[in-house]
TrEMBL record:
<feature type="transmembrane region" description="Helical">
    <location>
        <begin position="112"/>
        <end position="130"/>
    </location>
</feature>
<dbReference type="Pfam" id="PF02719">
    <property type="entry name" value="Polysacc_synt_2"/>
</dbReference>
<feature type="transmembrane region" description="Helical">
    <location>
        <begin position="48"/>
        <end position="68"/>
    </location>
</feature>
<protein>
    <submittedName>
        <fullName>Polysaccharide biosynthesis protein</fullName>
    </submittedName>
</protein>
<feature type="transmembrane region" description="Helical">
    <location>
        <begin position="80"/>
        <end position="106"/>
    </location>
</feature>
<dbReference type="InterPro" id="IPR051203">
    <property type="entry name" value="Polysaccharide_Synthase-Rel"/>
</dbReference>
<comment type="similarity">
    <text>Belongs to the polysaccharide synthase family.</text>
</comment>
<dbReference type="InterPro" id="IPR036291">
    <property type="entry name" value="NAD(P)-bd_dom_sf"/>
</dbReference>
<keyword id="KW-0812">Transmembrane</keyword>
<keyword id="KW-0472">Membrane</keyword>
<feature type="domain" description="Polysaccharide biosynthesis protein CapD-like">
    <location>
        <begin position="284"/>
        <end position="573"/>
    </location>
</feature>
<keyword id="KW-1133">Transmembrane helix</keyword>
<dbReference type="InterPro" id="IPR029063">
    <property type="entry name" value="SAM-dependent_MTases_sf"/>
</dbReference>
<dbReference type="InterPro" id="IPR003869">
    <property type="entry name" value="Polysac_CapD-like"/>
</dbReference>
Amino acid sequence: MFEKLLAFSRHNKMAMLALMDALLLPLALWSAVFLRLGGYWDPKLNPHLWIFIVPPLWAIPIFIKLGLYRAVLKYLDDKIILTVFSGVTLSVLVLQAVLQMAHIWAMPRTSVIIFWVFAMAYIGGSRFLLRGLVRRIDAVDAPREHVIIYGAGHAGVQLMLALQAGREYRPMAFVDDNPELHRRTFRGVAVHPPRDLPQLVKDLEAKCILLAMPSVSRSRQREILETLELLRVPIKRLPGMADLVSGEARVEELKEVEIEDLLGRDPVPPKPDLLARNIRDKVVMVTGAGGSIGSELVRQIAKNQPARIILFEQSEYALYAIDQELDRAAGSPARTPVLGSVTDYQRLVQVMRAFKVDTVYHAAAYKHVPMVEHNPVAGIVNNVFGTDTTARAAEDCGVDTFVLISTDKAVRPTNVMGATKRMAELTLQTRHARGSATRFVMVRFGNVLGSSGSVVPLFRAQIKAGGPITLTHADITRYFMTIPEAAQLVIQAGAMGDGGDVFVLDMGQPVRIIDLARRMVHLSGLELKDASRPGGDIEIRITGLRPGEKLYEELLIGDNVLATDHERIMRAQEYCLPEAEMRDVLVNMDEACRRLDAPAAFALLQKAVREFHAAKATQDWVTLANAAS
């Protein structure tokens, strides 16, 4: 029957609540008088029985005015007490005035005060009783997953309240490191120490652990996640405090634990003067503006008040996507999306001169090692000649600063992609050495988390599909950095140096990729499948190193490294080629590429990049197909 009542329209429910109050108020007054008279009835009140039924005549209009009937029962909170208090108090004052005007002296004076107590209890208590019934019926109708909330601070309590009002999760317990909170209870949910977690997960049949600690440092969050990993329970987290404060996210918008939470370091606040030096009130051009690094550079540049951003991109869709994102962003600076190739000198010059570009961030490149390994001519054309052409256009157009986004794979490369990026560095160093007016800066860093082709989204997709996770070698390691941190450091490094500098970003400690895969499996609440656990969920399958792939990456060619004004940016001192030698290499390499002679172009790349140790399996697929035919 109660469920049928809940199905009534909103107006019908409001009318039913008003009717309930119309019955409870006379009952409250009768209870107050009966209690005051000690269970006996005073015959002197018989002529005034009408006074027991009239309080609703003014109380209900007061309740309506105060919005008592607009509150949704399921989502009632403690604020309703203030509304009931105000409404009942006003009603009691009106009752007292009516008693005085009607000269009803037989009514005991203190019964009015007792009536206030009973009315508060009946009106307020009925609301919370109904709320409990509604939530109980809702819980039966929609069974919810049992969850444990890690963090019993303000964010954790707010999350619990939001979940209790929802239909997806049922918070069963809090866990918190603070001993002062242990054994406390919030809305019936008790706080436990972290050591109780394994037993809590088992006893409460928890299906998920929710991290509600948006303001803790990343290092502390990483420590917590390492302990939770052993429980083999899926873990979700609140958005960051910045997103909560800005209103971009709500408490109940839980997110999957990102691998950044495990690998990322506590960010060092950027230096505003370095961020703004090449950007504020300047025309800034980003090549490859739609790529993983390029698009994040655009986002960071947009925050630093450029006069205009030139989005230069070859992919129409990628250009459209970043342009639309900026269009939706509040306070976005003036921008111009431009389709074009970094190998098209005339187009580059046309754009740079038309907009009077001050700073160029060159992020356009082919970066996927296996693709470039078997398409060496395309890799050389885009990465080497694309960089040299863009740099020549920048020089000819009087651009102040040119920043190349390089890679750790350029250090003692074993693949074509890394060798082309090192060759791109060399072309800029040669230009600087001959006395260019444009300041050329190179910034070298490792893998960025979440970029296209990164192992993180690949592993996540493989886990979602039920496995296996494919890994090329059990001992392979990589450096990792978040995309925003990498972009900020690139911008700051680009503001340093006099030109010809190779800056290296502090990438922290290298990570074993197999450990990364294992942790991603565990944090998904799954079990690894191997010889000792044949009944596990996800298998890690070793496929062997791909052509040109290293077991580990380096950031420096030599040991010559100098500190800078930023603790996570270092300056490398490395060799460069004389201008005559560089000119001959580029001329011959250009001719080989025009002939589509992959072996000749590859040989010249090996000659120019002295430390290039090419993989034996490197082969151009097209050349191989022609030879076979």
